[in-house]
Amino acid sequence: MKRVKLISTCAGLIVVAAVGCSHSKNGEEDTVHPSVNKPAPTPTSQQAAAGDPTAPASAPPSSSAPATPPPPPMVSPGKVDGLLLPLDETGGIISSTLDYEQKFKTPLQPYALGNQSGCAVLFGLNTAAVGNDFTTFRALRQQESKDNFTHVVEQEIATYADAAAATAAFQNAFKALDQCNNVSVHRPTDNAGTTWQFQVQPGDPASANWHNTELTNNNADGWGCSHGARVKNNVIYAARVCQRGDTGAAVPTILDRIGNSIPA
After folding, report:
1. In a domain? residue 131
2. Phi, psi torsion values for 96, nearest 5 degrees
3. DSSP letter assigned to residue 234
4. Is 42 inside any structural domain?
5. For residue 233, is it left (φ>0), alpha (ψ between -120 and 50) or beta?
6. Is there a domain that residue 105 lies in?
7. How many domains in the chain?
8. 101: part of which helix (H) or strand (E)?
9. What is the secondary structure of 171-229 as a DSSP string?
């Protein structure tokens, strides 16, 4: 009996010694990893693990990238006339009663300005400015009456097959705009002694702004025209208001209203 107890006591000492060594090694703590009860493999998972071609394909990883929105609808040729502001609306903008208008369906030829031919677009969108790729063109001239007027309002619209074509045409038309600042030119259709001086105003790749001052014998005679042009979607659109004195915000207002009717 004493022999059995002695053996048991020795065995216990061996176990305690072994446990004590595992905790004191390099002063580190042991991490206890609990056992995990894994589910039994299903026939399908066993097939997939074994490379069975008959096993159902795993679902592809979901993508968090947002879907690309569709491009805005183009302005079709049949919608161009609807972009032009009517007489009563433009008359309200300039605070005058406009009763006469004339519509054009083709752009004019550029004025012959000699060495300043690149500035011809500052008199309005012409064939050189809109290029050969436009699909529809409209211009509308409005004033109090045909022969007696104190204001002239013009709107011009050119559409293209897509936004890229319109943007390319716009940037090409106004690429020399800054070179026209403070330049004076004479149009062949003007009276002798009449010239126009351009004042280019700040713009950006999608807009251009400038003012034309009429000069008689090199002196301002009080008549001038404020101009603006923009590109949006597949449309180039421009406006000008001519009168004596300051035109105020008339041109930006007209352009804003036209632009609001163009899908973005």
Report:
1. yes
2. -150, 160
3. T
4. no
5. left
6. yes
7. 1
8. strand 100-104
9. HHHTTTGGGGTT-EE--TTSPTTEEEEEEEEEEETTEEEEEEEEEETTEEEEEEEEEEE
> DSSP assignment of 153-169, as one string?
EEEEEEE-SSHHHHHHH
Query: What CATH number does the domain containing 133 carry?
Result: 3.40.1000.70
* pLDDT of the residue at 66: 79
Where in the sequence is the domain holding 130, given as residue range(s)?
A: 77-178+231-239+246-260
Contacts of 230 (CB under 8 A, 6+ apart): 206, 207, 208, 236, 237, 238, 255, 259
Q: Which residue has the tokens 């995990």?
A: 36
CA 178 to CA 119: how far, in whole Å?
9
Residue 81 lies in a domain: yes
> Which amino acid would we find at residue 41?
P
Question: Are the beta carbons of 255 and 239 closer than 8 angstroms?
Answer: yes
Cα gap 97→144, rounded to integer Å: 6
Sequential pLDDT tens for the chain (264 residues): 444 343 343 344 333 333 343 343 444 444 344 444 555 555 555 554 555 555 556 666 666 777 888 888 999 999 999 999 999 999 999 999 999 999 999 999 999 999 999 999 999 999 999 999 999 999 999 999 999 999 999 999 999 999 999 999 999 999 999 999 999 999 999 999 999 999 999 999 999 999 999 999 999 999 999 999 999 999 999 999 999 999 999 999 999 999 999 998
Helix/strand/coil percentages in the chain, nearest 5 = 35, 25, 40
